[in-house]
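Your task:
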Amino acid sequence: QVQLMESGGGLVQAGESLRLSCVATGAIFSVNTMGWHRQAPGQERELVATINSVHTINYADTVKGRFTISRDNARNTIYLQMNSLKPEDTGVYYCNADYWPLDNGPLSDAWGQGTRVTVAS
C-alpha cells in the first residue's frame, strides 16, 4: 500500500503564508508526478500545482506568482509554499502522486486525506 500524508494546513490572515508538505510512503519503486489540488466549500476539486521527477512545474493561473511547489526526490516529498494568501485560497488541499509500485504493476495513483487551509479576511 502507498500512503500520502499531508501536513502544514491551518488558519491564517489574508496576506500571510503557509507551507504544506506531503510525503509518499509504502511499496513505491519510483514516483512520477506529484501535485497539489484543492477543494473549496461547495466547489469541485481543482489543480493547484504539479511537479514531475525532473522538476517540470505547472501552476494554476490563480496561484502563479504566489505559490511555489518544490520536491525532494530522495524523500518522495513535495512542498507547497503559499505566500500572499487570499480568502479564496481557503479549502482542503490534497496531495496526489503517480507512482510505479514495487510489484512491477502499472503506473498507479494515490491521494492523501487532505489538509485544511483557512484564510480569514
